[in-house]
UniProtKB/TrEMBL annotation:
CDD domains registered for this protein in UniProt: MR_like
Keyword DNA damage on entry: no
The name this protein goes by in its record: L-alanine-DL-glutamate epimerase
Single GO MF annotation: lyase activity
Any Pfam family matching the protein: MR_MLE_C
Organism: Marivita hallyeonensis
InterPro entries the UniProt entry points to: DgoD-like, Enolase-like_C_sf, Enolase-like_N, Enolase_C-like, Mandelate_racemase_C, Mandelate_racemase_N_dom
Highest taxon of the lineage: Bacteria
SUPFAM superfamilies per record: Enolase C-terminal domain-like, Enolase N-terminal domain-like
Assigned keywords, A-Z: Lyase
This protein's record includes keyword Lyase: yes
Mandelate racemase/muconate lactonizing enzyme C-terminal domain: residues covered: 150-247
SMART domains reported for this sequence: MR_MLE
């Protein structure tokens, strides 16, 4: 039956942090998030999260996009089916995004709104999002510790292991000599059964990426993530794949069903990592997840943000099944931890999927209110 939306609440947040989170392309000096809530004419509601990590001013901008560029396309409008909202907003905002060239922000807003819409649909059906997508969804998903700066690996990997993780991902792409030395030392400190991956965050050109691979041939990386820019020429990616002794991973900066179809058929990636907050939301990434699994590749959703997006990513992975891991950023983030994604358990290596309707989130935690920087409420 059609879903008619009557209310939108969208808020931007920024949580201060003591230690900046560094990547090869920039440094986060606080933890931002944008949370959105949709409500329909029957009072059913759903929550979503919009990507806000970059640029530095992105959170408040995304929140205003929802209020000023999407409200007229949502309030009092009706949508049908799982992809109804995603398809409609993608079509109706095409010229707006083209006019300003802000493809990323528009895609990210649509992604967060789609997640909220699917949460609403699952809540109306009185099932979890995971079971709404797949009645045979897994009851829990394995997690890996991400966001570990290579310079802090010697302390952060043991701390993550103590929290229950046995798979870890370090950030490289800073100084080649230092990266290789520290990565080698990190392997020396692993325990039996541990897995270690590396993420370059698009830092290198082909020559630098191949040099890194040549210098780490004795290190059994679980995968090397984004060694090249997502838009690097396909021949460069294919040549690097032939030279690589480890699986290549990517996907957080790929968009569109066509983009993922090309990635699946490229014979480059062993691991694909769509991000529900950057493109596609739950409905778009559910289609991609199924295609990845059907192709025999590994589906490991990317996520680095607040609690809503992390929980939604867990539901998506549970629905998709397979041998994927849920990415869990181990850097401090009150906007994630306030949602208690692991419930009252202290171990972080496995996340159980709540059987509550939707994503199991009935309201925003009180503790996030002090971090709010912008709020917009739109009603019919």
């Amino acid at each position: 039956m059609p879903i008619t939306l009557t209310r939108i609440d969208v808020s931007a947040y920024r949580a201060p942090i003591d230690t900046p989170v560094a990547t090869s392309f920039g440094v986060m000096t606080n933890r931002p998030a944008v949370f959105v809530r949709l409500e329909d004419s029957d009072g059913a509601f759903g929550f979503g999260e919009i990507f806000a990590n970059w640029p530095a001013a992105g959170a408040e901008h995304r929140a205003r996009l929802v209020a000023e560029d999407f409200a007229d396309l949502l309030i009092s409008q009706s949508f049908n089916g799982l992809t109804g909202l995603f398809d409609t907003l993608t079509r109706k905002t095409h010229i707006r995004a083209l006019q300003c060239g802000e493809w990323g922000p528009f895609r990210q807003v649509i992604a967060g709104l789609d997640t909220a819409y699917v949460d609403l649909l699952a809540r109306r059906a009185d099932v979890s999002v995971a079971r709404f997508l797949n009645p045979d969804a897994a009851p829990e998903v394995p997690c890996y510790a991400s966001g570990i700066a290579i310079a802090q690996a010697a302390t952060e990997i043991p701390a993550s292991r103590a929290a229950g993780f046995s798979a870890f991902k370090v950030k490289v792409g800073f100084d080649a000599d230092r990266d290789v030395a520290l990565l080698s030392a990190a392997f020396d400190g692993l325990k039996e059964g541990d897995t270690l991956c590396a993420d370059a965050n698009q830092a290198w050109d082909f020559s630098a990426a191949k040099d890194f691979l040549d210098r780490t041939t004795d290190l059994p990386l679980g995968w090397l993530e984004e060694p090249l820019p997502a838009d690097a020429p396909l021949p460069d990616w294919q040549a690097l794949r032939k030279a690589a002794h480890v699986p290549l991973a990517g996907g957080e900066n790929i968009t569109g069903l066509g983009g993922f179809s090309d990635a699946i058929g490229s014979d480059v990636f062993s691991v694909l990592q769509p991000d529900i907050a950057k493109w596609g939301g739950l409905s778009g990434c559910w289609q991609v997840a199924q295609a990845i699994r059907q192709s025999g590749l590994r589906f490991c959703p990317h996520f680095l943000g607040g609690g809503i997006g992390l929980i939604a990513s867990a539901h998506l992975l549970a629905a998709a099944g397979g041998d994927g891991f849920l990415e869990v950023d181990v850097n401090p983030n009150p906007l994630r931890d306030a949602f208690a994604p692991w419930g009252d358990t202290e171990t972080r290596g496995v996340m159980k999927i709540s059987a509550a309707p939707g994503l199991g989130i009935s309201e925003l935690p009180d503790s996030v209110a002090s971090y709010q920087t912008a709020n917009h409420t739109l009603v019919r």
